[in-house]
């Protein structure tokens, strides 16, 4: 598949990815090479990756325990200390091999260690391939608040090898699919319509679908790298989705949700709001709700959960001057950003979601 040129770095696919990696290692005088993994990718992906690396550099593996719960500053401090103990310097290269937690956290570690060292991201989950691969967002959670600490800093390159998806459980694949659905809803109606009946999708063409998703996100990010304007479109489903995800993460009585599971719920809720604001038709809303609910189990949200979820909205990163702002779809395949939504309408969306 054709390489995608993102904002100051390329996204290479499959065999071209390793050719580009080894050429880069050959042409740059790095002092040493560190590979950051979590416990999952260390077990399932590292042994597949290492044979592709042609270098005489010393390679050190740094592993942390898998899970969103470990995407925090404590883990960063541990990795910074290990890098220091192993003699990392400003000419070191860091490769982040893993899902979104690894690439977000590893990118932040690299961007801040000695004021920044080169890093390469190799996403190994569907979610990280279609979402975390583009845009340069790095960072960690602050308590249960998603991605509160971080910087925008681009990698040297991103390498997408879809062979790693063979190691990904079905629930994680569905989690990544949510971002692909989002890309269709906000940017490409024809792309969205490919997912209306999941049983008709030929997943042997998954590479093509992934490539299209990366192209869509890249086209948006290239227009607005620092998320001042149109890049906010990518937050469709995330204003309420992140609040739900954070609430379920902190509540010991709730089952922790995968990112895509929360975002799927968020997209239904925010589609309802789009309908109520006459940005989409009722028919379009029903189509979205039916299609998403056919893929994802409903999130169990009780009446006493609503206020704590609403309280978390104020921490959303799109907010300005203390007001909650939404990105809503303006017809399938288009978006309106900076939309204010009344609390009553948000509650109404939750009530409809449960119906």
UniProtKB/TrEMBL annotation:
It is an enzyme of class 4 (lyase). CDD domains: DHQS. Gene3D superfamilies: 3.40.50.1970, Dehydroquinate synthase-like - alpha domain (1.20.1090.10). Residues 176-319 form the 3-dehydroquinate synthase C-terminal domain. Residues 62-174 form the 3-dehydroquinate synthase N-terminal domain. InterPro entries: Dehydroquinate_synthase (IPR050071), DHQ_synth_AroB (IPR016037), DHQ_synth_fam (IPR030963), DHQS/DOIS_N (IPR030960), DHQS_C (IPR056179). Transmembrane segments: none annotated. Keywords: Cobalt, Lyase, Metal-binding, NAD, Nucleotide-binding, Zinc. Its cofactor is NAD(+); Co(2+). Its EC number is 4.2.3.4. Signal peptide: none annotated. PANTHER family: 3-DEHYDROQUINATE SYNTHASE. Catalyzes the conversion of 3-deoxy-D-arabino-heptulosonate 7-phosphate (DAHP) to dehydroquinate (DHQ). This is 3-dehydroquinate synthase.
């Amino acid at each position: 598949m054709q390489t995608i040129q993102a904002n100051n770095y390329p996204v290479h696919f499959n065999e071209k990815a390793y050719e580009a990696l080894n050429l880069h290692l050959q042409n740059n005088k790095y002092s040493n090479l560190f590979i950051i993994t979590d416990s999952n990718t260390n077990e399932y992906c590292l042994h597949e990756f290492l044979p592709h690396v042609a270098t005489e550099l010393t390679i050190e593996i740094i592993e942390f325990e898998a899970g969103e719960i470990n995407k925090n500053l404590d883990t960063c401090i541990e990795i910074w200390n290990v890098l220091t103990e192993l003699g990392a310097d400003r000419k070191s290269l860091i490769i982040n091999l893993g899902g979104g937690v690894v690439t977000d956290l590893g990118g932040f570690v690299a961007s801040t260690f000695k004021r920044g060292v080169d890093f390469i991201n190799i996403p190994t989950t569907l979610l990280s391939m279609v979402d975390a691969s583009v845009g340069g967002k790095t960072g960690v959670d602050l308590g249960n608040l998603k991605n509160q600490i971080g910087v925008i800093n681009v990698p040297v390159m991103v390498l997408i090898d879809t062979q790693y998806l063979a190691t990904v459980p079905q629930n994680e694949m569905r989690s990544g699919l949510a971002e692909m659905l989002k890309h269709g809803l906000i940017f490409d109606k024809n792309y969205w319509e490919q997912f209306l009946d999941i049983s008709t999708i030929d997943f042997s063409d998954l590479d093509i679908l992934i490539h299209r998703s990366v192209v869509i996100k890249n086209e948006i990010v290239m227009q607005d790298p620092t998320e001042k304007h149109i890049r906010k479109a990518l937050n469709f489903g995330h204003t309420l989705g992140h609040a739900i995800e954070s609430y379920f993460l902190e509540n010991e009585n709730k089952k922790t949700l995968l990112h895509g599971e929360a975002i799927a719920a968020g997209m239904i809720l925010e589609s309802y709001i789009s309908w109520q604001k006459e940005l989409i038709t009722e028919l379009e809303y029903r189509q979205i709700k039916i299609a998403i609910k056919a893929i994802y189990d409903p999130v169990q949200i009780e009446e006493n959960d609503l206020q704590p979820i609403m309280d978390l909205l104020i921490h959303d990163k799109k907010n300005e001057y203390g007001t909650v702002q939404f990105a809503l779809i303006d017809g399938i395949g288009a978006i309106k950003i900076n939309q204010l939504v009344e609390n009553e309408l948000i509650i109404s969306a939750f009530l409809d979601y449960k119906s």
